[in-house]
Amino acid sequence: MLAAGLLSYAGFSALCLAMERHHQEMLGRRPSPSRKVQLRVAGWALLALSLWVSVLSAGWAMGLVRWTAMLMGSAVFLVWLLPYRPRWALVLAAAGLLLGLLAAAARW
Fold first, then answer.
1. DSSP string, 44-106
2. Mean pLDDT in each 10-residue stretch from start to end of the chain (108 residues)?
3. Is 10 within 8 Å of 93 (Cβ atoms)?
4. What local confidence, expressed as pLDDT, does residue 25 receive?
5. Which end of the chain is less enclosed by CB atoms within 10 A, N or C?
6. Residues 18-42 pLDDT 10s
């Protein structure tokens, strides 16, 4: 369940970085059009990976419920963090991606 939460936070962060305003706020420059597409694809892929991890760990019935809860929790945390500490959101997304992948790999 931790892996799904971390991966969904990283996915939402990638989708957030695909927006010009947030990319400028976090990294100090505007994203190129190809970078925006790459970030969108990465964000949706991470959200799909978090769904896969959640369903494999708890089955379809409870996995979807847990995944939905992880989506809501990670989105609220990102939305809460962005106005106050945008750089922290970026650092936590990188750490969440790394730890989420490690936690998912350690499970299997």
1. HHHHHHHHHHHHHHHHHHHHHHHHHHHHHHHHHHHHHHTTT-HHHHHHHHHHHHHHHHHHHHH
2. 92 95 89 95 96 92 94 95 90 92 82
3. yes
4. 86
5. C
6. 999 989 888 889 999 999 999 999 9
Q: Whole-angstrom Cα distance, residue 26 to residue 8? A: 19
- Reading the block at residue 33, the tokens are 């059009």
Range of the domain at 16: 2-107
74/68 Cα distance (integer angstroms): 10
Into how many domains does the chain fold?
A: 1
> pTM score, two decimals?
0.93
Range 19-44 burial, b when 16+ CB lie within 10 A, else e: eeebbebbeeeebeeeebeebeebbe
Residue at token pair 């494999």: 56
Q: What is the DSSP string of 89-106?
A: HHHHHHHHHHHHHHHHHH
